[in-house]
Amino acid sequence: MPGDTDHLSEIHLEIGSRLARQDHRYTTGRRHLVSVLAQAGQPMTLPDIVTADPDLAQSSVYRNLDVLVRSGVIRRISAGGDHTHFELAEPLLGHHHHLICISCGGIEDIHLDSEVEMLVDQSLTDIASRSGFTPIHHSLDLHGHCADC
Amino acid sequence: MPGDTDHLSEIHLEIGSRLARQDHRYTTGRRHLVSVLAQAGQPMTLPDIVTADPDLAQSSVYRNLDVLVRSGVIRRISAGGDHTHFELAEPLLGHHHHLICISCGGIEDIHLDSEVEMLVDQSLTDIASRSGFTPIHHSLDLHGHCADC
DNA sequence: CTCAGTGCAAAGGATTTGCATGCCG
DNA sequence: CGGCATGCAAATCCTTTGCACTGAG
Question: What is the interface size between A and B, counted as CB pairs within 8 Å?
């Protein structure tokens, strides 16, 4: 993939300003956390993150994930395994869905045809408005066994 | 809804034979658990279940939910709140999706147009086969705020 | 400087498990 | 009867929190 480094600094810039707007600091620890997630390119659990960068402290990572989720920078994914997964939020990663392995708990990103995507979105919007429900985003996951399991 | 009682005994019958086939007993406790879920008609957490029928013991409910999930009778839903939700599995309840309230954690069942449903399924099947992923089922949830929140 | 952020260790809380007893088949 | 199922209480383990210290702005 060309321009990887540029892409990463773009992400840092974007996140930095977004945090600043909410009176949060973009500290070294947060920057490292974001780098780990960006470089993995797929949802990670806390152990994944701490293993990838052992300088990060558990409690700080959890706290920062929380801050970043609340700032709309990171997305929390509950897949049903032991640990919650986290990935960069859609404004940074683009809208997508997941393949969830029910054996190993792994998660992989996938993209739908935009045609199908629009239809789904339209359907959901209709249904929501009928229930007085205010939609924020949808999640569409395929559960099964990955190639390795 | 006409024939509610019949519907419930149908469910018990179906579950009973399914459990028998897997060398599990359909005990009083399990029957009560299933009744609670069937009568609620929407996904419930463990506290919901125990509140609905205080004779049920926490640990037994958890153990039985586990058995029933493994037997394909109950489905586990991880919505991201404190508790996991459970509902009767799709063979009993029909294929459907969820409206998930990110304020109160409540979950409501919804149904999609069968046309949209087929398109989604087709898309996912295509994507999965390209990754060597074996699909089992998909989940499609709309996250937002319910009418009460 | 000041206060948000950090790291350690300890607490919290949903879920699981050990063990003696009860009940289904 | 024999073994799966139950219920209580204790253990487990992911996640959160208290507190004193550090570093960003």
Answer: 117
Cα B41 to chain centroid, rounded: 9
Q: A49 phi and psi, to 5 degrees?
A: -65, -50
Q: Specify which residues B140 forms β-bridges with.
A: A140
Same-domain pairing of B53 and B81: yes
Determine how many CB atoms are found less than 10 A away from the CB of residue B107: 20
Angle, helices B58-70/B28-40, rounded to nearest 10 degrees: 80
CATH code for the domain of B135: 3.30.1490.190
How far, in Å, is the CA of B73 from the C1' of nucleotide C22?
Answer: 26
Predicted confidence (pLDDT) per residue in B86-97, tens digit: 999 998 999 999
If asked whether residues B69 and B120 sit together in one domain, one would say no
| Optimal mutation site among A101, A113, A121, A142, interface B, most CBs of chain B within 10 A | A142
Residues A55-69: what's their mean pLDDT? Answer: 97
Could you say which DSSP state residue B141 is in?
E
pLDDT class of A72 with cuts at 50, 70, 90: very high
* Residue B146 φ/ψ, nearest 5 degrees: -75, 170
Domain that holds residue A144: 95-149
Residues A79 and A7 placed together within one structural domain of the fold: yes
pLDDT of residue B4: 61
At B20-30, the pLDDT tens digits run 999 999 999 99
* A110 with B119: Cβ contact below 8 A: no
